[in-house]
Every structure is written in structure tokens, then in C-alpha cells.
Design a protein that fits this description.
The chain is α/β, with parallel strands linked by helices and about 150 residues long. It has four helices and seven strands. It starts with a helix and ends with a strand.
């Protein structure tokens, strides 16, 4: 009963025995199926992970400067309501909210973004609020208009 591999292949070629030969190929079909399912899950989940406030930003043709890991955004919406990050705040609580967001680091850069509909005077009022709160490093955010 000790049939060797070479004998089994030879006997099969001659039409004799039905002994099966081991196949050393990897079946990658299940792996490809799992990867396609994961790809679809990430394609659906990625747009849901980004939450933005609806602000129509003006365009700029200047080379953008590098951004920190966790920037602090102050947003002025068209109705002049303000938000720190994604949270809407009142003007009188802006200082306390910024202190909580920056851990009272007055040297941290504050990124100020405002809708096109906000007038220059209203934007200057917000910048004065930031200056009175002790935040002197203010960066204005705009869309990239170099294309």
C-alpha cells in the first residue's frame, strides 16, 4: 500500500489508479471577497466621518502654510452666529470656549473662517473679540483659487 507520489502520477497517466495528487495552490477567492467588502464599507463610511459647517469661503491664490495636527477653527456663519470647531457658541462665551479648546494656550494659532456674505466690519468685530481674549495669532482661512 505504500504508493509513492511518482508512482501515483504515473499510474494515473496510464489510466490505472484514481489516487489524488496534492495541490499546493492557495485559493485567493475568499480573500478577494473579504477585501472587496471592506473596500465598500470604507467607501461608504468615509464621507460620513467628515462633518462640516456650511460656509461659502472666498478663494485665495496664496501658497497655503502647513496646518497643525489639531487646529482650532472659529467660524462666522452668514447669520453672524459663531462656532468653535463644530459647536455653535454665543459671543459672550467665546473666550471660555476658546480657553477650553486650546487648554488656555494663548500662543496657539486660531483659524478664522467666515462666509463671503459676512461684511468686513463684522469680521473685524470677531477679530477684536479674539484679540481681547488674548489670542493674537489669527490665521484667515480661504479656498484655494490657484487653479
Amino acid at each position: 500500500m505504500g504508493v509513492k507520489l511518482g508512482q501515483a502520477v504515473g499510474a494515473r497517466a496510464r489510466g490505472g489508479s484514481d489516487d489524488l495528487v496534492e495541490s499546493h495552490e492557495i485559493n485567493v477567492t475568499p480573500f478577494i471577497d473579504v477585501m472587496l467588502v471592506l473596500l465598500i464599507i470604507f467607501m461608504v463610511a468615509a464621507p460620513l466621518a467628515t462633518v462640516d459647517l456650511g460656509v461659502d469661503l472666498p478663494a485665495s491664490a496664496v501658497e497655503p502654510s502647513p496646518r497643525p495636527d489639531k487646529p482650532v477653527f472659529v467660524t462666522v456663519k452668514p447669520d453672524l452666529s459663531m462656532a468653535v470647531g463644530e459647536d455653535i457658541v454665543a459671543r459672550d462665551t467665546l473666550t471660555a470656549t476658546l480657553d477650553a479648546a486650546t487648554k488656555s494656550d494663548k500662543n496657539e494659532r486660531i483659524f478664522l473662517r467666515a462666509d463671503k456674505a459676512v461684511s468686513y466690519g463684522d469680521l473685524m468685530e470677531v477679530m477684536n473679540l479674539l484679540r481681547n481674549a488674548g489670542y493674537l495669532k489669527i490665521a484667515l482661512v480661504g479656498l484655494d483659487g490657484r487653479s
